[in-house]
Design a protein that fits this description.
With 165 residues, the chain is mostly helical. The chain is built from eight helices and no strands. It is 52% helix and 0% strand.
Length: 165
């Protein structure tokens, strides 16, 4: 053992007997998600009596990660090794505002604006004036994609164009 290795790293951690080593190996083979498969194999490695430090080194993880996966496995079984949902930031627009925004985009541009197609900057300004929310230009395009609206469209026609030409 390395001289600086802590007693906690050398200690064998208790692994729940939800599954045998063979069952863990079979579950790992059947698992389509690589990160989850590695977690299952790390638990199997611990189950076979290897240390936390050895397991972390073998799987390229930090010891704290392996310990967290072990606690989750002991508490929840294989389900505890799956990725947890990441909810992200709350939407800036509520459902009614989102519906109004979508309808505004679908209705097209008013002739008074003097432009022939929606641009990210124009939509940002409309959202700022109407709902007092701030979006970045890339954020506008993410919002459009989430609402099923393509940010690319055929070449627009100016409202004052000459149809005959």
């Amino acid at each position: 053992m390395a001289q600086g290795e802590s007693a906690m790293a050398r200690a064998r951690l208790p692994v729940s007997n939800h599954l045998s080593a063979e069952d863990l190996e079979a579950a790992a083979k059947a698992e389509p998600v690589g990160r989850v498969r590695a977690r299952i194999l790390a638990i199997r490695h611990l189950w076979r009596g290897h240390s936390l430090a050895d397991t972390a080194g073998l799987f390229g993880l930090r010891e704290t990660q392996v310990r967290a996966y072990l606690h989750r496995y002991n508490a929840e079984g294989l389900a505890g090794l799956r990725d947890r949902p990441h909810p992200g930031a709350r939407p800036k627009l509520d459902a009614e505002q989102t519906a109004r925004f979508r309808q505004r985009v679908l209705d097209g541009l008013p002739a008074a604006l003097g432009v022939s197609a929606w641009r990210g900057a124009t939509l940002r300004a409309w959202l700022r004036e109407t709902f007092a929310v701030e979006y970045s230009t890339p954020g506008i395009y993410v919002l459009l994609r989430r609402l099923g609206l393509a940010s690319l469209m055929p070449r627009p026609h100016h409202p004052e164009r000459e149809v005959e030409a």
